[in-house]
Write a structure and sequence with these properties.
The protein is mostly helical and about 150 residues long. About 55% of the residues lie in helices and about 5% in strands. The protein has seven helices and three strands; from the N terminus they run αααααβββαα. The chain has helices at about 5-15, 25-40, 45-50, 60-65, 80-100, 125-135, 140-149, and strands spanning about 105, 110-115, 120. Strands 1-2-3 form a three-stranded antiparallel β-sheet. The relative contact order is 0.15.
């Protein structure tokens, strides 16, 4: 959606800034599970995939199947960033669920990233947006690099 006054406000004030707050240690695990569940929804991407008969089962194979889809979403400039965001969140979900030691981390500005056991952070939303816009890097390629790390 193109909202001019909002875009002008963002230009003047810059990116959102925030603070992450964690509760007691026993709440941290529940919070992490809640964040992971929320980030895994990816409704638009799941709907697009379902419409062509592709079931997203949170596996590396599903990332390969997404890479093979005809990118019809590129015809809709309003849908493109939303689908790219969902693709990045889905990529992150697959990494977190299948790569040992990988976990979601939310930066203070609210940006979700995946932190690997090595400490390396992957901005999966950026990777998803790049994939949606140009097809590169492929989601399965980002996953393969993360699983080797």
């Amino acid at each position: 959606m193109n909202i001019h006054f909002l875009e002008n406000w963002r230009k003047r004030h810059g990116p959102a800034r925030g603070v992450s707050v964690m509760g007691a240690a026993e709440d941290a695990e529940a919070d992490a599970e809640g964040v992971a569940e929320l980030l895994s929804e990816c409704g638009l991407l799941r709907s697009q995939a379902s419409s062509v008969g592709l079931e997203l089962d949170d596996s590396a194979r599903s990332l390969e199947a997404l890479d093979q889809l005809l990118p019809r979403w590129r015809d809709d400039p309003e849908e493109l960033p939303w689908l790219g965001n969902d693709a990045g969140l889905y990529l992150g979900t697959v990494i977190v669920r299948t790569v040992p030691g990988a976990a979601w981390q939310v930066w203070p500005n609210g940006q979700p990233v995946v932190r690997l056991a090595s400490g390396r952070e992957i901005d999966v939303v950026e990777a998803g947006l790049d994939w949606a816009v140009s097809g590169a890097p492929e989601l399965s390629q980002v996953y393969a690099e993360a699983s080797e790390d």
